[in-house]
Amino acid sequence: MTEVTHTKLSEDITIPVPWGHISAEWWGSKNRQPVICIHGWQNNAATFNPLIPLLPENFSYLCIDLPGHGRSTHFPDGIPYNLLFDGVIVIRRISKHYGWNEISIIGHSLGGLIGFIYASIFPDQINTFVSLDIVAPLVKFLSEDYLSKIGGAIDKFLHYDTVKNSNDQVQEYNSMIDTIMKGHNNQLTREACECLLTRGMHSHGKGMYSFSRDNRIKVGWLTPMTTDFVRNCANKIKCRYLNIKATPYDLDTWPMYKEICDIIESSAREFKLIFVEGTHFVHINEPKKIASHISEFLLFPNCESNCANEN
User: Fold this and answer.
1) Domain that residue 86 falls in
2) CA end-to-end span of the chain, whole Å?
């Protein structure tokens, strides 16, 4: 196992919630309100470990494990996950727990979707939002065959709810790495997989492990959204907004992606779209490619808006 080292100190914390706790990693001074960092689907707070040490020292960062992910408490038996709005509610709980009236967010994938929805529902209570390789709920939520898949998803949830996590295979460490790489279409490096496993597995002794996440999160996408709803959300966003898009991107979804970016640019206080070469996981595979863009955006508010043109 490759040891992950950092130039900044972090502290594991827990935040109480009615069903247990939200586990998180707090980087930097506890005397500063941190930027809240939200990971992607079936990942965890460690997804930001390679990136945070490259970001400005005069900021603190709170990297959370969403419910059912990482070290956070799973939902009670019988309760399904609604990944987007569960995340919005958790961020709201955290804000109220610490008494923060205005927050800033860095979100990757699912975390970016949660930030998008939060910024539209609470437009006056978010200052800066950095979204990594996602802008809004697109194809998976708007496809014509979505309704036909809901029944199967519900039955899958009931199956996972019955067996809980007992069907998770107990396996050797290298097999865990292989499972993650295969599950992410080989877009993650081995080092990135090892990083995620620091918060994403249980040890069973004798070199055997299982994943710590709740299997029910695999079917947490049961809330359909219309194109008009997503457009309306984008039109409500007022905060400073940086969107970093990995290339090459999906040409089929790009027109909708660009349309939402254009709406946000017209409504947000400041908007910037940056393209970087890499996979969907460029933030953990090659964090140096995006760190300078995020740092500049955090350090220099109210700079001239700049939306990069894609030829």
Assistant:
1) 10-142+222-307
2) 42
Is 36 part of a structural domain of the chain?
yes
Residue the block writes with tokens 């995340």: 87
* Beta pairing class for 171-172 and 208-211: antiparallel
Report the number of distinct structural domains present in the chain. Answer: 1
User: Which tens digits make up the pLDDT trace of 197-217?
Assistant: 999 999 999 999 999 999 999
What is the average pLDDT across 219-235? 87
109 annotated active-site: yes
Please calculate the CA angle 68-74-76 and round it to the nearest 5 degrees: 135
- Does any domain span residue 117? yes
Helices 173-183, 190-200: inter-axial angle, 10-degree rounding: 110
Lowest mean pLDDT among 181-185, 274-278, 279-283, 298-302: 298-302
Helices (H), 37-82: none
In a domain, 34, yes or no: yes
> What are the distances in angstroms from CA 122 to CA 93, 97, 131, 259?
13, 17, 16, 22
Compute the distance between CA of residue 35 and CA of residue 136 in angstroms, rounded to an integer.
20
The CATH number of whichever domain residue 60 belongs to comes to: 3.40.50.1820
Q: pLDDT for 63-98, tens place per residue?
A: 999 999 999 999 999 999 999 999 999 999 999 999
Residue 169 domain flag: no
Spatial separation of the C-alpha atoms in residues 136 and 262, rounded to whole Å: 12
Encode pLDDT of 254-285 as tens digits.
999 999 999 999 999 999 999 999 999 999 99
- Spot the catalytic one: 109, 120, 131, 212: 109
Model-level pTM? 0.92
Cα–Cα distance list, 193 to 198, 276, 281 (Å)? 9, 21, 11
pLDDT at residue 303, as a whole number: 46
- Cβ-count burial 26-57 (b if 16+ within 10 Å, e if not): bbbeeeebbbbbbbbbbbbbbbbbbbbbebee
